[in-house]
Design goal:
Blueprint (H helix, E strand, L loop, with lengths): L4 H21 L1 H12 L3 H4 L1 H24 L1 H19 L5 H29 L4 H30 L4 H18 L5 H8 L12 H31 L4 H25 L5 H21 L4 H15 L2 H12 L4 H30 L1 H32 L7
Helix pairs in contact: 1-6, 1-7, 1-8, 2-10, 4-5, 4-6, 4-15, 5-6, 5-8, 6-7, 6-14, 6-15, 7-11, 7-14, 10-11, 10-13, 10-14, 10-15, 10-16, 11-13, 12-13, 12-14, 12-16, 14-15, 15-16
Length: about 400
């Protein structure tokens, strides 16, 4: 039984996203080991997040125009190789400067794989983009769940969680030849060729910048919370570090379930309604998180609720971007994703700084206020999106 080209694309990108989820989620649980390995303090080693997302930012700025010209497959192929090499050497590096350098290299690959996969799936499954993107990102969440759990098991078995990012890097390198064999459907190639001459007009749309700003806050808060959960829980409760890593896995599993749920709801609800529901759910979790510092059960419940709400935010925003700016999807998604990477550069480092200098409670309120900011941005986007459907030629309603 032969598999259609579009299904092959979904399978390969889903595998890539599973590994992508592992690559980011393992950073938090291995930070203490990286700190001991390099001799750097926890705040200094927290700069790994900054370098990772700096690399992703540069890749996403460049990948949009490159993918519009050469196609998403080329960007996905090179991104997989670069990310694999970066993660492999990163986990073996003995000094802080080497760790940060190869985290930056891994970030370049991460940004390329993330952007190219999302845009490719949105184009191939245009009529079902919200559902397809949530399904794709479901595998990211599945990898993000598996990553900290595997680190916890590796620490327990071999006292070395860094085996996991090293193996994950090898998996990305092994995936690259399969990416080259993908055949992009003709309708996607034709859509890429039919663009207006004024391709830079997309950068003048306030709606795109507000969607990008929402991703900036969201990516920063999500990765800040996901990256520091292990340290937060081991600091505020009696959980050991390997048990705290399992709480981090639970957060990513809740996020994964949120994406799976919204892959189903995406066929029935508008993207805006899904986005509002997700932000409202995560805000409820964020408030509980802020008020439950030191209470193990309530902290875990709040983390799960926040993760469930976070699930569909990123893929749904990318679906909105693709539908609103479909004739320049690469450039639009590139800008929005790059702004998300700026958030990933700044906010996880800031949360680590607050956790170290001002305590766990301040760190929890930092998360809560960030989620509240998402709600404010959603309201602005909702207002902008109404006239945008009529004033921007490339726009269409869901």
């Amino acid at each position: 039984m032969s598999i259609s080209d579009d299904k092959k694309i979904m399978i390969i990108t889903s595998i890539a996203f599973f590994c992508l989820g592992i690559s980011l989620a393992v950073i938090g649980p291995v930070l203490p080991q990286l700190s001991r390995q390099s001799g750097a303090g926890l705040v200094e080693i927290g700069a790994v997040f900054t370098m990772l997302f700096l690399g992703a930012l540069i890749a996403q700025v460049a990948a949009g125009p490159i993918s519009d010209r050469f196609g998403q497959r080329t960007v996905l192929f090179w991104g997989s190789l670069i990310l694999g090499a970066g993660m492999l050497v990163f986990s073996l590096s003995p000094s802080l400067w080497m760790i940060l350098l190869f985290a930056f290299l891994g970030g370049l690959g991460h940004g390329a794989v993330d952007l190219s996969s999302n845009v490719l799936i949105a184009q191939v499954f245009e009529r079902r983009s919200v559902a397809a993107l949530n399904l794709l990102n479901f595998f990211y969440g599945l990898g993000a769940f598996a990553g900290p759990a595997l680190v916890g098991l590796a620490i327990g078995a071999w006292n070395n969680g860094l085996y996991i990012p090293a193996i994950n890097g090898l998996l990305f390198i092994a995936l690259a030849p399969f990416i080259l064999k993908l055949k992009i459907p003709q309708n996607t190639v034709v859509a890429l060729e039919k663009r207006p001459n004024d391709t830079f007009s997309v950068y003048r749309q306030p709606l795109l910048w507000m969607l990008g700003l929402l991703l900036l806050v969201y990516v920063g808060v999500e990765n800040g919370l996901g990256g520091w959960i292990s340290t937060y829980m081991s600091t505020t409760t009696r959980l050991s570090m390997d048990s705290a890593a399992l709480v981090s896995s639970a957060f990513w599993m809740a996020l994964t379930l949120g994406r799976l749920l919204n892959a189903y709801l995406g066929m029935r609800l508008s993207p805006e309604r899904i986005l509002f529901t997700c932000i409202g759910t995560s805000l409820a979790g964020g408030l509980l998180f802020a008020f439950s510092t030191g209470v193990q059960t309530l902290s875990i419940i709040s983390i799960l609720l926040t993760g469930l709400g976070f699930g569909a935010v990123y893929p749904t925003v990318i679906a909105i971007v693709n539908k609103a700016f479909r004739q320049n999807a690469g450039k639009a998604a590139s800008l929005a994703a790059a702004m998300g990477s700026i958030g990933g550069m700044i906010l996880p480092w800031a949360q680590g700084f607050i956790l170290d200098r001002y305590g766990a409670s301040a760190s929890a309120w930092f998360v809560c206020l960030g989620i509240a900011g998402l709600l404010v941005l959603f309201i602005v986007i909702h207002q902008l999106n109404q006239p945008a459907r009529q004033s921007v030629p490339a726009c269409e309603t869901n």
